[in-house]
Amino acid sequence: MSAWLKNGMERVNEFLDRNVLPWPVRFLTFRFVILATIALLIPLVVYANRTALVLLINSYLNTMSVAVSSIVLLYATLSEARQKQIAELQEKRAQEDHQHVTEMHTLVLQALKNQDQEIEELKQLLAALSNKPYEPTAPQPIPDLRDMHPRGDDRFKEDDLEKRWQEQMHHNPLVSTLREDLTPKTNE
After folding, report:
1. Which of 31, 119, 147, 156 has its CB surrounded by the most CB atoms within 10 Å?
2. Residue 186 half-sphere exposure, CB side, CA atoms within 13 Å?
3. Distance between CA atoms of 104 and 72, rounded to whole angstroms?
4. Which residues contact 21 (CB under 8 A, 6 or more apart)?
5. SS3 sequence, the chain?
6. How far is residue 54's CA from residue 52's CA, in Å, rounded to a whole number?
């Protein structure tokens, strides 16, 4: 699809979403319209032998049914897009938090290593001042953060999220097709 046609369709959709579609939604979700539509079932039964009236009411009910179904489908699609965006934002936040915690852990380990070195230096100084022999203790190895994670190095790979998403999600061709165009464009 050409960029010109795609941009034109996006503008038409935006215009419809902003200026046209809210009105049928307001009309169809107005409680008195719902009650009046349900009440139209009574004349269908009472005047069953008046063909013109039955066809008129039936046409109205069919139109309302199609309109309501279309609106429900539209809002379900929009809701799914919003839920996907929320999930992506939450996952991005979780990744940022994970990275932050990892960096904080590294800083804490570095601080502990520095403290151990300073304590060793103080012990050496105290031993020298008291003329006692001092044997330095072997420093404890700093544990590797990646080894500590239950999933190991895999958790730290760039494509980890995408792989896990593909493996654990149920894939439906229609939903996958809908999701392709629902990602907002970033202006970077």
Report:
1. 156
2. 2
3. 47
4. 71, 74
5. CCHHHHHHHHHHHHHHHHHHCHHHHHHHCCHHHHHHHHHCHHHHHHCCCCHHHHHHHHHHHHHHHHHHHHHHHHHHHHHHHHHHHHHHHHHHHHHHHHHHHHHHHHHHHHHHHHHHHHHHHHHHHHHHHCCCCCCCCCCCCCCCHHHHCCCHHHHHCCCHHHHHHHHHCCCCHHHHHHHHCCCCCCCC
6. 6
Closest among 88, 81, 86 to 176, alpha carbons compared: 81
- Residue 54's pLDDT is 93
Contacts of 57 (CB under 8 A, 6+ apart): 40, 43, 44
In 3D space, the residue among 57, 43, 146 whose CA is nearest the CA of residue 98 turns out to be 146
Q: Are the beta carbons of 57 and 40 closer than 8 angstroms?
A: yes
The amino acid at 105 = H
- Domain boundary assignment for the chain: 154-179
Q: What gap in Å lies between CA 77 and CA 178, rounded to an integer?
A: 8
